[in-house]
Amino acid sequence: MKHKIFCEVCRVSFIHRGELKAGAAVICTVCGARLEVLEVEPEIKARRFPQEPEQEIRERVDTFARLRGYIFNAEKENIIEGLMDKYKKFGDFYCPCRFDNIPENICPCLETRMNQVKKEGQCL
Ligand SMILES: [Zn+2]
Fold first, then answer.
1. How far is residue 79's CA from residue 60's CA, in Å, rounded to a whole number?
2. If we measure between CA atoms, which residue out of 99, 94, 121 comes closest to residue 110?
3. Kind and range of the H or E run holding 5
4. Cα(24) to centroid of ligand 1, in Å?
5. How far apart are CA 124 and CA 116, in angstroms?
6. Ligand 1 mean position to 14 CA, how many Å?
7. Which of 58, 72, 107, 116 has the CB geometry, 3.0–4.6 Å to 111, for a possible disulfide?
8. Start-to-end Cα distance in the chain
């Protein structure tokens, strides 16, 4: 079975294959976010999986890297720290390398989701 699920982190829909029921955890294949399925009928509703912020962002970047076949450089811990700072100040994981705290810059940012790593060799 194919299900179309909207990810509120990266704000696009992705396809999930297999059984789906309320309470299930699914991974967004676009950004790596873990989501909790709230409802399946009449339409699928999902939200960010409730978990500690640092656990959430670590899991998301690890999953995203695994999905894309990327590896982290030596800056990983500094970036996680920067992401946590942004979360505490601005309420979400906006990229610490970017000035604007806008949805497009929520980690992994839109350019990174659009294959910037493949083009540039790294994110930003
Ligand atoms: Zn997503």
1. 13
2. 94
3. strand 2-7
4. 16
5. 8
6. 8
7. 116
8. 37
CA of 38 to the centre of ligand 1 (A): 16
- Tens-digit pLDDT string for the chain (124 aa): 899 999 999 999 999 999 999 999 999 999 999 999 999 999 999 999 999 999 999 999 999 999 999 999 999 999 999 999 999 999 999 999 999 999 999 999 999 999 888 888 888 6
The alpha carbon of 20 and the centre of ligand 1 are apart by a number of angstroms equal to 17
Domains, the chain, ordered by start? 2-48 (2.20.28.160), 53-120 (no CATH)
Cα separation, 101 vs 92, in Å, equals 8
Instruction: Tell me the CA–centroid distance for residue 13 and ligand 1, in Å.
Output: 8
Q: How many angstroms is it from 42 CA to the middle of ligand 1?
A: 21
- Ligand 1 center from residue 114 Cα (angstroms): 12
